[in-house]
Amino acid sequence: MHLDGGCLCGDDFRVIQGEPKIYQSTAEGVRKFCGRCGTQLVFQTVGSPVLDVTIASLDMPDVLQPEAHIWTESKRSYIGTQDLPSFHNKRPAE
To answer: Considering the entire predicted model, what is its pTM?
Structure first.
């Protein structure tokens, strides 16, 4: 699955309406979803201040510009990654 996401520090992100539902998807992380429609909003590794935010869930997604491709080890062959730095699995260290 291809997913447009962005990484933000936890203090830079807030939900302005409603309260997300939380699902512990693995021992390492939690996912937060819209309680009304089920849209995934964020993934967060336990103990990390960084949130992986689904770009399509933002009110103004076009104001963000991509800086890198991550988890390219699982990308489909038709997904191009030559335009930006690419990382085989995890994002680069902050």
So the answer is: 0.68
48 sits in the region (left: phi over 0; alpha: psi -120 to 50; else beta) called beta
Q: Phi and psi (nearest 5°) for 28?
A: -95, -15
- Domain boundary assignment for the chain: 5-59
- Closest C-alpha among 49, 42, 52 to residue 6: 52
Average pLDDT in the 28-49 region? 89
Q: Is 8 a residue whose pLDDT tops 70?
A: no
Is residue 1 scored above 50 in pLDDT? Answer: no
Across the beta sheet with 50-54, the strand order is 5-9, 50-54, 40-45, 29-33, 21-23
∠ CA 14-15-20 to the nearest 5 degrees?
Answer: 125
**Burial (Cβ within 10 Å: 0-12, 13-18, ≥19) of residue 51:** buried
Which whole-number Å values give the CA distances from 34 to 9, 79, 81, in the listed order?
Answer: 20, 28, 30
